[in-house]
Amino acid sequence: MTLNTFSIERAKPAEKAYKLADGGGLFLLIQPSGSKLWRLRYFLFGKERTLSIGAFPAVGLADARERREQAKKQIAAGKDPSVEKRLNRIAAEAASRNTFALVAAEYLERLEANGAAPATLKKNRWFLEELCRPIAARPVAEITPAEVLDLLKRIEKSGRRETAHRLRGLIGSVCRFAVVTLRATNDPSYALRGALLRPNVKPRAAITDEEKFGGLLRAIDEFDGWPTLRAALQFAALTFARPGEIRLSKRAEIDFTKAVWRIPAERTKMRRPHDVPLSRQAVAVLRDIWPVSEMSDLIFPSTRSFLRPLSDNAFNAALRRMGYVQDEMTAHGFRSTASTILNEREFNPDVIEAALAHQHPNEIRRAYNRELLERAGRTDAGLGRYVRRV
Q: Is 360 a catalytic residue?
């Protein structure tokens, strides 16, 4: 006779445990304590075994019967339901330990091992540790597109559209890392392509008018601030290098004989070494400042210590002192200025891109660009020579 919910609820504990059978090996074990436990008696390879299914009423009658049928299918396939249950529990426990925060930390370690720039690591760590707090404790395999979208939309509504887009990409990178390390089966951010509003991209301010840029160069020449800061700004206008590459440049990187500045890979954005042929004007700037910084390994040391480089904001602060507001010119703007004016002047685009260290994905093309840049430096037709004539 099969059980029903009414009979189960009416079953009272006795001095000794007893069973109420439901059929097919399923029975309810009534304990003296009053607990009612579902059990399944089954045979596998000639041996009798017992599977614990759960306690009533947390596991109702219909649920217990369904689990019995699932166990029968496993037995028919030659699997032991008790072993499968244990394996599933182990997998669930492992999944709960593989949280997004843990996988993200491993992803950051991998980036560092692959030579990512310190600034990149710092920024990515902030994105993954601070902005991803709502999903940090979630098992990475269980994170859904809806969760990620909710997180991104909150950032988007705060006005940080570009941040939301960058975070979606980073979350996707972490989840794909979880997939290749067998801790997840999919990337929930993939389904969210096109779900966010386009970022309001505001390019770094730069002077692209030739006459106004000439005025800026004169203002730099007349700047009465720290000599190494004035020289660094002049050098930026002549080489178009990134501000961080200039601030951290070292005397050992300059080859005066060949008129080349060799920037090591660890300091470039693309993590590749970049050789900058120096025009006569750029060499002159270095020779003028060389005695001032002779107590330091740095070419452009800080105003406070010869052991420290110029600060991140040194260039922009000097531009503000010269009267150039934030929406008019920035330290990074020298690169945009060079690209715009020199392209308008119909300089060889390959030379311009090579000078800006914009690496072409094609290796042969990169080699060709480098040869053009070296040739420009050798003939003193370097692009820096032009800006000094403006």
A: no
Closest by CA to 348, choosing from 363, 369, 366, is 369
Q: What is the pLDDT of residues 187-241, one digit of tens each?
A: 999 999 889 998 766 667 888 888 999 999 999 999 988 889 999 999 999 998 8
Examine the domain organization and report whether 85 and 107 are in the same domain.
no
Domain residue limits at 126: 100-192
Question: 31, 21, 16, 13: which is closest to 61 by C-alpha?
Answer: 21
Catalytic annotation present for 324: no
201 within some domain: no
Please indicate whether residue 218 is annotated as part of the active site. no
Q: What is the pLDDT of residue 96?
A: 66
Segment 194-206, tens digit of pLDDT: 899 987 666 678 8
Q: Are residues 50 and 164 in the same domain?
A: no
Residues 20, 29: Cα–Cα separation, whole Å: 7
Is there a catalytic annotation at residue 368? yes
Structural domain contains residue 107:
yes
Whether the full predicted model's pTM is greater than 0.70, yes or no, is no
Query: What CATH number does the domain containing 380 carry?
Result: 1.10.443.10
Selected catalytic residue, list 67, 168, 242, 247: 242
Our CA angle for 335, 125, 185, nearest 5°, is 110
Query: Would you call 202 a catalytic residue per the annotation?
Result: no
Active-site residue identified among 65, 161, 165, 335: 335
pLDDT, average across residues 357-384 = 47
**Backbone torsions φ then ψ of 159, nearest 5 degrees:** 95, 0
